[in-house]
Amino acid sequence: MWKSWKRRALAENKTDYSKYRFSWQEYLLCFFKAFFATGAFTGMFYRSWLGMLAFPAVWKVLYRRDKKNRIQKRKERLSLQFKDTILMVTAGIQAGSSIENAFLDVEREIGVLYGQNSEMGQELALIRKGLTNRVALEQMLLDFGRRSGIEEIRDFTEVFATARHLGGNLKEMIQRTADLTGQRMETQRDIATMLASRKYEQKVMMLIPFLLYGYMQVSSKGFFDGLYHNPAGIAIMTVCLGLYLASCVLAEKIMDIRA
Questions:
Q1: What residues have CB less than 8 Å from 257, skipping those under 6 apart?
Q2: Helix, strand counts (H, E) of the chain
Q3: What is the C-alpha separation between 219 and 236, in angstroms, rounded?
Q4: 3-state DSSP call for residue 47?
Q5: What is the C-alpha separation between 42 and 51, in angstroms, rounded?
Q6: CA distances from 177 to 86, 153, 171 (A)
Q7: Cα first-last separation, the chain
Q8: What is the pTM of this model?
Q9: DSSP 48
Q10: What is the three-class DSSP state of 18?
Q11: CA-CA distance, 180 to 14, in Å (whole number)?
Q12: Which residues are listed as membrane-spanning (predicted)?
């Protein structure tokens, strides 16, 4: 009964990396971003405070976008930390440690490198507690692979569990699989690095219409007055707004290497 209670306590502390819970600071930041974005679009395209009625929809879109980005960034951190963890585990196995002891020993090194509260630091702490409670290592790794939502981690844990169940040269399998997993993750990081400058250029291009609008308002005041507060102007600006938003969505999809 005591061990059952401990296992339930461990399960409650597990992180599902496909989900994310905002802190109140992050909620507040998202609120101000949505308010500013709604005001900017309302002022540029309609010059009417009635446009602020779209604030709830804008907030919902930005909230989902921020949540998706935060989940992806956390997965990227986890992927990098996992790669280093497996390399350290492999080195420990080559030095003569058992597989369980290699995972236990690497917890301190990951804590020094990334911090005890890092994603992999917390996962290794769960593995240590699980081994203390006599939970099978392959069972915990399979659970971690499912929760990670990362293909490379899931593939590694499934291969590990299968090899552990069927027997064979487990140490050689771990080393070979770790090398392949590390290469795949490194390739993805290289691609992301190459796209970083393009994503920065994309953000600049998204700001250019607002900068041009501000410049024209200063240098040629009244130039756009004919486009506001009349049916034809509203229709034209609505089409322009639709084209702008469609181009933003298309640019993000092009830059998303995971799509």
A1: 188, 191, 192, 195
A2: 9, 0
A3: 23
A4: coil
A5: 5
A6: 9, 10, 10
A7: 46
A8: 0.79
A9: -
A10: coil
A11: 27
A12: 20-38, 44-63, 204-220, 232-251
CA 228 to chain centre: 40
- CA torsion 217-221-223-226 (nearest 10°) is 100
Which single residue is written with the structure tokens 């308010």?
A: 35
pLDDT given for residue 84 in this prediction: 86
Q: Is the pLDDT of residue 59 over 80?
A: yes
Q: How far, in Å, CA of 88 to CA of 120, rounded? A: 13
Calculate the CA 161 to chain-centre distance: 26
C-alpha to C-alpha distance for 92 and 97, rounded to whole angstroms? 6
* SS3 (DSSP) at 57: helix
Place of tokens 């240590």: 128
Residue 168's pLDDT band, with cuts at 50, 70 and 90, is low
Q: 111: how many CB neighbours lie within 10 A of its CB?
A: 16
**Contact in structure between 72 and 79 (CB atoms under 8 Å):** no
Handedness of CA 89, 93, 96, 102 (dihedral sign): positive
Question: What is the three-class DSSP state of 224?
Answer: coil
Round to whole Å and give the CA distance between 221 and 241: 21
Q: Tokens for 189?
A: 């990081």
Rounded distance, CA 22 to CA 29, Å?
Answer: 10
Type of residue at 83 = K
Is 83 within 8 Å of 182 (Cβ atoms)? yes
- 139: three-class secondary structure by DSSP: helix
Contacts of 30 (CB under 8 A, 6+ apart): 22, 59, 62, 63, 66
6, 133 Cβ separation under 8 angstroms: yes
- The alpha carbon of residue 74 and the mean position of all alpha carbons in its chain are separated, in whole angstroms, by 5
Distance CA 201, CA 121 (A): 35
